[in-house]
């Protein structure tokens, strides 16, 4: 029953995406100025950018140019209509756990990356491994694995799809360890924090400030919150100016207005806790 409703939701969203194309084209003369300026230029101090801000900037003009992917959810989660894709929204498609208690995720990294790029990707993996039971291992024979490539933009599929699955980190735009960690968390099965079903208790979405054709990126999902509190500081949280029409905030904290949303390079403590809860990892001091 869950699968049917999720599939229907995806279908509806894809139809919605198609129907907004014409609107975008019609209004292009009005929005011309915005289309030619960068996501962050007018309202975000570059040194304050979070991993998600960087992803939005990298994907701003490129996300539609990826042939493998049918569409993107929330700006950077790849969705295809192929029969192989599992409906992972609202429930997770998990990687399997080893008898030794670790979750080993095999990966390949494209030889097109420079040594520096590869070090940045490795740092993003290390950040996930630290304090969790997840371990990234270079692929030898594993059937299921991440194929990390510098395709167009920064994006990942949600959860494990089975077989080879692309995780794109374009160079240099996506070459932040925090961006790598963010995409790896999508691959582990996590959606964006402000997609949580209970988010309206914790943040206010300022719908009138959102670019009209990007409103769909602020949907809520029936997420499994793993009994964890809402985490404004998650590396999976949108920034305050995500998809802003004119530089005004689009999502703000409800209570403490000073709380900073998102992360630049690290997972929050709650991000790590959520990984361990989702994968039912025992907490050992040697993680
Ligand atoms: Zn994301």
TrEMBL record:
Residues 1-25 form the signal peptide. Its cofactor is Zn(2+). Its EC number is 3.4.24.-. Zn(2+) binds at residues 182, 186, 192. Pfam families: Astacin. InterPro entries: MetalloPept_cat_dom_sf, Peptidase_M12A, Peptidase_Metallo. GO terms for molecular function: metalloendopeptidase activity; zinc ion binding. Binds 1 zinc ion per subunit. Residues 78-282 form the Peptidase M12A domain. Keywords: Hydrolase, Metal-binding, Metalloprotease, Protease, Signal, Zinc. PROSITE patterns: ASTACIN. SMART domains: ZnMc. It comes from the Eukaryota. One of its GO terms (biological process) is proteolysis. PANTHER family: DISCOIDIN, CUB, EGF, LAMININ , AND ZINC METALLOPROTEASE DOMAIN CONTAINING (PTHR10127), METALLOENDOPEPTIDASE (PTHR10127:SF791). This is Metalloendopeptidase. It comes from Umbra pygmaea (Eastern mudminnow).
């Amino acid at each position: 029953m869950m699968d049917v409703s999720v599939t229907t939701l995806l279908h509806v969203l894809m139809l919605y995406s198609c129907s907004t194309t014409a609107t975008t084209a019609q209004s292009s003369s009005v929005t011309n100025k915005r289309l030619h300026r960068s996501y962050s230029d007018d309202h975000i101090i570059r040194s304050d950018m979070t991993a998600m801000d960087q992803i939005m900037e990298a994907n701003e003009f490129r996300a539609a140019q990826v042939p493998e992917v049918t569409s993107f959810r929330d700006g950077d989660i790849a969705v295809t209509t192929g029969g192989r894709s599992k409906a992972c929204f609202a429930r997770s498609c998990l990687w399997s756990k080893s008898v030794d208690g670790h979750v080993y995720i095999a990966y390949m990294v494209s030889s097109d990356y420079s040594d520096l790029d590869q070090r940045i990707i490795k740092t993003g993996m290390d950040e996930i491994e630290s304090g969790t039971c997840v371990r990234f291992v270079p692929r030898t024979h594993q059937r299921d694995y991440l194929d990390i490539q510098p395709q167009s933009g920064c994006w990942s599929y949600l959860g494990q799809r089975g077989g080879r699955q692309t995780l794109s980190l374009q160079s240099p735009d996506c070459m932040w360890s925090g961006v790598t960690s963010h995409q790896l968390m999508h691959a582990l099965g996590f959606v964006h924090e402000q997609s949580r079903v209970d988010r309206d208790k914790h943040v206010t979405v300022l719908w009138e400030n959102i670019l009209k054709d990007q409103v769909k990126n602020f949907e809520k999902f029936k997420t499994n919150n793993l009994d964890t509190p809402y985490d404004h500081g998650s590396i999976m949280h949108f920034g305050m100016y995500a998809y802003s029409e004119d530089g005004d905030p689009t999502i703000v904290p409800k209570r403490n207005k000073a709380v900073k949303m998102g992360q630049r390079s690290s997972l929050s403590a709650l991000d790590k806790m959520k990984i361990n809860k989702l994968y039912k990892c025992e907490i050992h001091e040697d993680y």
